[in-house]
Structure formats: structure tokens, C-alpha cells
């Protein structure tokens, strides 16, 4: 596939991560450009990645195959309405903004090929995962372009229905914070058990890292991995039974439902 020319509208942390990932894959700097309101941010991203930057969004998208909307949801409507007259029919629009539906983007930009995606913050380390949904106008070649873009910072998974974006937001978009909360709680509990705080933190962090790597590399699911390390009447079983007695699984389900519901609410509010 020919390397697409990509223009980023907004050059913040997620855009910088995507640009860095693309450059690490060997994408030429001449194929990437970005716009941003801030002169300092434009200078920084240009110096780091060798790409051309613009103060004008309309200038940045000229000649691009893919336009990445990497701006805050609150300013999306204004930016899209300003861009609408400058976007060509063959250009693919990829939005990484949370809570903005394809229908809202089409109402501001007009009917066109749009891919909506939900990356998460580990993408900043190129360890992210993203859910992608493309509207009916997206061609097979454009699907490849969008997948190449998001794969630069981790795993990219296509969704069959746009409504599944809310579930992706609940599971992986907000998910890192759930693990951070568990890390906080385990560190605090370890300290109360008599460990120095730094020792408790390091034990917790590296246990989380090791467990995640084992799960990713394993050919069995998490429930089987848990069974294998839970000896009958042992210490792990004592802890697991305590979690389950207090409704751990139900609480996780309730929390993710709350996140998905809030995602749908925000989409309705921001799309007006």
C-alpha cells in the first residue's frame, strides 16, 4: 500500500504519540504534517519529528489522504465547521476525540468517509489499544490507512457497530485508571502490612507488569491463569475468596456500565 499523506489537526500528546509511532515505522517525515494553535507546540513537534507544521488547519490538510482530528471534543464542532469547505471528497477523516459520533461529524463536515476511534493513554508509550469504527463511506483502502495509523501506537481492533465505542471507552479507554486504582490500593495495603512504601510500590508495579505480560503471551484465558496460581487452601485462595465474597465481579460490571452510560451521555451532549 502506498504510504498515505497524513495531516494532524491538533498536535498534543496523543497526536505526538501517533506521529512518533509512524516515524518509528519508517514513515517519511514529508508524509506527515500537523497544525496547532500554539506556536510553542508547533515548534516542539517539528523539532522532535522533523515534520512541517502550520498555524492554519486549512493549510495543513492540503494534499493529505488522511486527516486526523486530535483536538478536544469541546472545540470539535467549531473546528469541523471551519474545515468543511476545505476537505476534499477523497480525504479520510479520522477522529480520536472521545464522545463525538460519526453522525455529529457528518453534520458538521458533510457526508464523507469517517473513522471514529477510541485509543487509550498507554498509546503514549506505544502500548495502547484502540477500537475503530468506520462509516459506510469508508473504502477498504481507507480502512487499511486508519488501521496503519492506530497500529503505530499499539493494537487496533475494528468494531461492527458504532455503539460499541461506548463499551470500548468503558473497558480500555477508561481502563488504565482502574488498574492504577488497584495499584494504589495494593501499595497502601502492603505498607499497612509493614513494608516500606517504596518497596510495596515496586512489588505492586512489577507484579502488575508481569501478570499483564503473562496474560498477553499465554494461550489460555485469564480465568485459567488465575486457577493455576491459586492453590487450594493457600494464600492466594484466601485473598480471592475475600474479593469474591464482597462482590468483586459485580462491582467491576457496575463500574463499567457506569462508564459506558456516561460515554453515551457525553456523545449526546457534545454532538449538539
Instruction: Describe the global form.
Output: elongated
Terminal residue distance: 37 Å
Q: What structural category arises from helix and sheet content? A: alpha/beta
Helix content: 40-55%
Name the strands of the widest sheet in spatial order: 3-2-1-4-5-6-7-8
What name does CATH use for the topology of the largest domain? Answer: Rossmann fold
What value does the average pLDDT take?
95
Number of helices: 12
* Count of discrete domains: 2
Condensed summary:
This protein is about 55% helix and about 15% strand. It is α/β, with parallel strands linked by helices and about 270 residues long. The mean pLDDT is about 95.
List the helices and strands and how they pair.
Elements: E1 6-9, H1 13-24, E2 32-35, H2 39-49, E3 52-54, H3 57-60, E4 66-69, H4 73-83, E5 92-95, H5 102-109, E6 114-118, E7 128-134, H6 140-151, E8 154-158, H7 164-173, H8 175-192, H9 197-217, H10 222-228, H11 235-245, H12 248-270
Parallel strand pairs: 1-2, 1-4, 2-3, 4-5, 5-6, 7-8
Antiparallel strand pairs: 6-7
Description of the structure:
By secondary structure, this protein is an alpha/beta fold. The chain folds into 2 domains: 6-168, Rossmann fold, CATH 3.40.50.720; 175-267, Orthogonal Bundle (ProC C-terminal domain-like fold), CATH 1.10.3730. Helices cover 54% and strands 13% of the residues. It has helices spanning 13-24, 39-49, 57-60, 73-83, 102-109, 140-151, 164-173, 175-192, 197-217, 222-228, 235-245, 248-270, and strands at 6-9, 32-35, 52-54, 66-69, 92-95, 114-118, 128-134, 154-158. An 8-stranded mixed β-sheet has the order 3-2-1-4-5-6-7-8, with helices on both faces. Helix 2 (39-49) links the parallel strand 2 and strand 3. Helix 7 (164-173) packs across helix 12 (248-270) and helix 8 (175-192) packs across helix 9. The longest helix has 23 residues, at 248-270. The radius of gyration is 21 Å and the shape is elongated. The two termini are 37 Å apart. The mean pLDDT is 95.
